[in-house]
Amino acid sequence: MKILVIGSKGFIGSHCVDFFSHKNEVWGCDVLIDYNTPNYLFIESVDSDFQDIFLNHKFDVCINCSGAASVPFSIENPYHDFQLNTLNVYKILESIRKFCPECRYISMSSAAVYGNPTQLPIKESSTLAPVSPYGIHKVMAEQICKEFSDFWNIKTCCIRIFSAYGPRLRKQLLWDISQKAIKQDKVLLYGTGNETRDFIYVSDVVSIINLAITHSDFNGEVINAANGKQETIANIANLMLKALSIDKSIIFNQEVRPGDPLNWEADITKIQNWGYTQQFNIETGINNYVSWLKENGLA
């Protein structure tokens, strides 16, 4: 297969490039100028235009890992978040529709589309009630994928990623804990510590993307990417400090950050029926992450 990974220099995108390159012709696309990487396409970060990419190449699969992935960023920069997470999806799909209509398109969505669920575990059919601009923009992107599938028969699916983590991630909870543990006297975090997330190691995310290529109906289908397990933020913080071999106090400020849900646990029946099994438990994943931090002088 000839696969295009948009956002190939980012967290999930770079892991996709590594994984799919073993058996496929993989092209990367990103906003960073890179003259040393083969099969690499540069795209402008402002007012991106994807038409030439799909005019000049016939891809079998496009995996879109680009965009912003931060709730606070979406609150502070809502229009920019909309451009990256919603408008660019439309631009990509319009370019596929015009120049490469047989290309299967996989969009990275987010569990943020669910907001604060009223029932756990969260099924793909659960009500969407996002509590942040980021979540709203991801819902809109999913609707765009469904639009292109319904009206023009473009093959699309959206993968709702829950709390992904692993090497190369330099933001979000685990990164925040590591940097505070290294640089500060104590680790101060939002919330009570009893909030839960459904964590999934990045290699397991990529395996789900691979399963989607084979098993998705590509009719605007949505797919949960998680492990169906709740982990408290307090437990994650303790596991991080243990892996870092740092003995410091963890303090929760008892404040819920705007846009943050309280509890997440995914129903993963769909991917289990496709053959998904978790390869990295939370302890192994955190140890791998800390090893990467140390190898790169970040811890």
Automatic annotation (TrEMBL):
Residues 3-225 form the NAD-dependent epimerase/dehydratase domain. InterPro entries: Epimerase_deHydtase, NAD(P)-bd_dom_sf. It comes from the Bacteria. Belongs to the NAD(P)-dependent epimerase/dehydratase family. This is NAD-dependent epimerase/dehydratase family protein. It comes from Bacteroides mediterraneensis.
